[in-house]
Amino acid sequence: MRTALRNILIACGIALIAIPGRAVTFTQNGITYSTTTTDGEVRIYKISASWLQNVSIPAQVQYIGKTYDVTSISVYAARNASLLSVDIPASIKEIEGGAFYGCKYLSEVNIAAGVEQIWAGAFSGCSGLTSIHIPASAKIIAGSLDMNPWGHFKNCGLTEVKVEYRQPWEINANTFEGSYNRATLYVPVGTKLLYERLNWKLFSKIEEDPELGVYYYVNVSCSDNGKVSFNNQTADSKSPILTNVCPNENLTFKFIPEDDSIVYQVLLNGQDVTAMIEQNELRVNNVSTDNTLQVTFKKNLGVDEIQDDTMKVFVCDGSICISGASRSPKVNVFALDGRLIYRGTEHTIALPSKGVYIVKVAGHSFKVAL
Predict the structure, then answer these.
(1) 232 in Cβ contact with 272 (< 8 Å)
(2) CA 20 to 30 Å from 42, out of 139, 178, 196, 337?
(3) C-beta neighbour count of 355 within 10 angstroms
(4) Model confidence over 94-106: pLDDT tens digits?
């Protein structure tokens, strides 16, 4: 009778576990898992076994014939645990707030590429932790726990912090509180200036490390009367662009002059490349160095800005002709939308189509209609 009753209870328990939408909790090797709202996924609810010291979190676990992906580590899951090391696999999408809070013996943390979010207080108080390597995938999420802001790595014993962010996330002042004056921050080559614009500058020492990635800076600045668009960013006279790109990347800069202005000059690393502009765009292929772009826009000053008895710009046989200019000065011909059509020293210039053009020669500007 007792055996039969026990079998019935077991059967009922299994049936309850199988009911869709009902949470299932189970423990394996000292780690307690709980199912999530997403079918086939579990979160680490608790790391509670006192004998656990070196933990390698599995990417998957099996329970009653079903395989679950392990996708998160819950709030306070290992709080004050006696862990010495922990390996966190790429299947983990979130390391939630305070997950390893107060693990003062924890000296080694390996976060796999693929982990997506590290929440406030996740490793706060891990005083034995001297080094941390944060992959590019793992965003440090600013936030609070129990209504009090907690630093993600506050009061750790860090002496080195390695991050792979190409475009760094902003952090709070308390994210690495207690380590800023002690730890060296290592960042990818070509990113230090970007980190120094954010709260990462709180680190007293920042160094670039090629093992974390190699990129090239792109600095874009421009004058009044226009803007420059690059990689979904826009530079104007007050707000330059500072970003980076991958080696061998192809770059496209788009120039946006105001209605009454033209692209007057473009300098790339100090060299005049205005003649390379086509349809208000400049393309730079196979980047292999840092690049500084300086763009000058100027107002279109209208027809025959300056009357000069010694120099004349006029139409002859369907071309633009220049007379009276001495020493073969440089000639620039622009379309009204700012595109550079011609740059050189010829005094008879054949143009591809009829229209109105701005001719700049010997410091003077002329408007000519073909």
Answers:
(1) no
(2) 139
(3) 12
(4) 999 999 999 999 9
